[in-house]
Amino acid sequence: MRAFQILGRDAFNRDGMTSVWHANRFFTVVADPIIADVILKSCLEKDDIMKLAQLLTDNGSIFAAVSIWRPRRKILASHFNTKILNDFVSVFSKQSEILITKLKETLDRGSFSVWNYFTTYTMDAVCETSLGVQVKSQHNPDQPFLKAFEECCDLGSARMVQPWLHSMTVYRHLPQYKRYMKNKYFICDFIKKIVQSKRKDNELHQISDMNGDQYTGSDGVKSLLELLIKNSNFTDKELQEESVIMVLAGTDTTAVAASFTALMLSQHLDVQDKVYEELREVFGDSNRAVEPDDLSQLKYLDAVVRESLRLYPPVPVITRKVERDVALPGGVTLIPGCGVVVNIWAIHRNPHYWGDDAEEFRPERFLDSALKHPAAFMPFSYGPRGCLGYRYAMMALKSALASLLRQYRLMPDNESYATVKREPLRLKFDIMMKDVNNFRLRIESRN
Ligand code: HEM
């Protein structure tokens, strides 16, 4: 992560752009939203380095060539509408309640990592809303589907940062390739069975996986997969690929965002008090589940999540490939063949757009004034290839955090942390940006 931070700061001092060689590839690194706006609207093809992920996703839209991505995106986008997303809130609420119950076990344990709690919450929520199955990883963190996904992501990110592993000719002879493919086949087989089963009978039902575990159907909410079977001409293979994308794109990203937000709240108790006040205004003393209308009323919580996403974007960089001349504001022209790294981490801390307190955690900035440029805040990317699940993610995050904060007070991992001057978090990069200390905090019951 340090390399991206250094390159980002270097770009601030050079009118928002700098450059770097990665192995034999030349990359332009962008830390200015005006330049990013032009690039993300004119370069739609992902850079080759991201295409390494296609070993898992095949033609799934997120990394696919533009010709495959465009028609799929149109169909997928129509399914992320308000009606469908509002239906998912009951799943987020139900899974949040399980999260709260699970967190009880940490009450007397002092500091602990929230990561596993959030990643199992998001895995369960995404599987139920996208695939229409309950994998119950919150009850069983060693759940094989979750483990297979984790191992593929770990191996994939290790390969990405080691250019000598990029060649398939080399990689396919290594033991990590065998492990990668074993996990991939497990994931694909699991999803293939779900697709076939949903195709056959688009009703609630039970399926069994290879190991005999029981995965039950969702509680009456139509999943994206079921809706796509009904409303699109996607083949089984296309459905399978897009289902993998939903799980891949939706699980760890949202868990990282939830973990950073919880960490920020544990270190900014004044902010947490304001969130709690807002929750009391909306929910009073009641224990009722979160409903869609509540989410739109939680404006301060919304600002808190955005501010966490600004300082700690789960996807800190994205890439594009330049395929034709692109003239940038300022006179530079990008030429075909070069790669572009849009440094979201740096754009979010660019003092020209965020002021002298850009490094401070101050959620009010999202309530007090409008963005100086629409691309100054882009945790979900920007332009035609931006995240399809951004509203889904905000709803899943706010549902979980609202349930969590009504029940518990989040505290820093040790007493002294709150009283000493806060140091910036130490960060690492493994496809996503994470906290080196693995998101440690303590919780206290509010009752
Ligand atoms: C906090 C959570 C999330 C973050 C930070 C995030 C971030 C991103 C980013 C940065 C991209 C674009 C990559 C690029 O431009 O190269 C992306 C794409 C995508 N995301 Fe998300 N995402 C989140 C949650 C979700 C969820 C919950 C879903 C679905 C349930 C989802 C589905 C997708 C899909 C399908 C794409 C590909 C869009 C396309 O290429 O047309 N994301 N996401």
TrEMBL record:
Its cofactor is heme. GO terms for cellular component: endoplasmic reticulum membrane. Heme binds at C387. It is a peripheral membrane protein. SUPFAM superfamilies: Cytochrome P450. The keyword Ribosomal protein does not apply. Its main location: endoplasmic reticulum. Keywords: Endoplasmic reticulum, Heme, Iron, Membrane, Metal-binding, Microsome, Monooxygenase, Oxidoreductase. One of its GO terms (molecular function) is oxidoreductase activity, acting on paired donors, with incorporation or reduction of molecular oxygen. It is found in: Endoplasmic reticulum membrane; Microsome membrane. May be involved in the metabolism of insect hormones and in the breakdown of synthetic insecticides. Belongs to the cytochrome P450 family. PANTHER family: CYTOCHROME P450 4C3-RELATED, CYTOCHROME P450 FAMILY 4. This is Cytochrome P450. It comes from Manduca sexta (Tobacco hawkmoth).
